[in-house]
Design a protein that fits this description.
Number of strands: 14
Strand order of the largest sheet: 7-6-8-9-10-13-14
Shape: globular
CATH topology of the largest domain: Rossmann fold
Distance between the termini: 31 Å
CATH class of the largest domain: Alpha Beta
Largest sheet: 7 strands, mixed
Order of helices and strands: EHEHEHEEHEHEHEHEHEHHHEEEE
Strand content: 15-25%
Helix content: 25-40%
CATH architecture of the largest domain: 3-Layer(aba) Sandwich
Number of domains: 2
Number of helices: 11
Length: 376
């Protein structure tokens, strides 16, 4: 059962074939390695993503037929800290995992991707929209979600269409925060605007008082937040206590359900951009499938945007495995994933190619209610 304790990686499957040419799993399980925060202030991001992926892979493994290898995700806790993530990644690579999967966050993924690239290990579906992980093109990195530039462009367009042009940015003081700030700045520049104020918070902290003071002094119409759920919740509460009456907009990495849980009734009206189909809207087949799978799974998994992303990541990865022939290898998996062009996964379009490893540009807005729910 997944909880907030520290996770450690167990033994790995045997390496088969030539290391130089391709990494191949043995006749046993396909082993994936996930370094993510399972403890600390960002823990819910790792927990929820993993729960969603496990719901899918448990179903996949239960339905495994002749010739289909079962899939296991092995987890290690990095606390959303780059150095710990890099060390976890080295251990996974030393244990010959088939692929790195579902890493959480920009600074951690930036620490891990060069290691994966060096050892030619696929790096699949990181929970980040940073352009620094997408450009330049990397043969080993596959992104399921839209970019932060896509998310912030929609947020800025929505705000300016409403006549709200004084936009401030509260962001984490690291690569994630900078990626989001760059996205907002780029979108505003296209309209001959710029942020009226910016302020930061350190990763894994809620020390927001100085940021609140700086941003409120600029009297913005809206604040775009680029941080994790605890610091964003702390900022919203402190800003409202200080008399700020404007709106708050967040990108998807904040962890929508975690933010709603942290804010409670104070969440009413807070906007979050989404890069996955809503699990709360049964209009798409993938939402109906996912909610049904979570119900059947029982346990601690809940249907929310973060777990939906984990579920879809697992589903797309499994499609890649289905398209491989013979014993799975890294090269074979890369070619198989690149063959998934304009394929619908229950209403969510995924399109890779040999020149494009970003599957989607889908973004929409959602709003928190005062009773802990999310409206799309």
């Amino acid at each position: 059962m997944l909880n907030r304790r520290h996770f450690s990686v167990g033994g790995a499957a045997a390496l088969v074939g030539s290391f130089e040419l391709a990494r191949a799993q043995g006749d046993g399980k396909i082993i994936l390695g996930q370094s993510a925060p399972f403890t600390g202030p960002a823990a819910q991001l790792g927990i929820q993503f993993h729960q969603g992926a496990k719901v899918f892979f448990d179903l996949y493994n239960a339905q495994a037929g002749t010739g289909r290898r079962q899939v296991e995700i092995r987890t290690m806790d990095d606390g959303y800290e780059p150095d710990r993530c890099a060390e976890n990644t080295r251990k996974f690579i030393a244990d010959d995992v088939f692929s790195l999967f579902g890493y959480i966050g920009t600074p951690t993924s930036l620490a891990a991707l060069p290691l994966a690239t060096k050892d030619k290990v696929p790096f699949f579906a990181p929970f980040t929209g940073a352009m620094g992980l997408r450009q330049p093109f990397n043969r080993y990195a596959f992104h399921l979600r839209a970019s932060y530039n896509d998310e912030t462009a929609l947020i800025v367009r929505q705000l300016t269409n409403l006549g709200l042009k004084k936009i401030a940015v509260f962001h984490q003081n690291d690569a994630y925060g900078k990626a989001g700030l760059d996205g907002v700045t780029l979108a505003l520049e296209a309209l001959n605007l710029k942020p009226v104020a910016t302020a930061t918070v350190e990763r894994n902290t809620v020390a927001v008082d100085a940021a609140v003071k700086t941003i409120i002094a600029a009297a913005p119409d809206a604040v775009v937040q680029i941080s994790a759920y605890n610091s964003c919740a702390a900022f919203i509460r402190a800003a409202r206590k200080a008399g700020y009456g404007g709106t708050f907009h967040n990108v998807s990495f904040v962890g929508t359900q975690a933010l709603a849980d942290a804010l409670g009734k104070d969440g009413a009206g807070v906007v979050v951009s989404q890069v996955m189909p809503s699990p709360y809207n049964p209009a798409r087949a993938i939402a109906r499938e996912f909610v049904d799978a979570v119900k059947k799974a029982g346990g601690e998994a809940q249907a929310n945007f973060s777990s939906m992303e984990g579920y879809l990541a697992a589903k797309v990865f499994a499609e890649g495995l289905r398209r491989t022939s013979g014993k799975p290898t890294a090269d074979g998996m890369i070619s198989a994933l690149e063959s998934i062009e304009n394929q619908q996964f229950g209403g969510f379009n995924v399109s890779f190619s040999s020149k494009n490893h970003v599957a989607s540009t889908f973004v929409e807005l959602s709003m928190l209610t005062g009773d802990g729910r999310v409206r799309t």
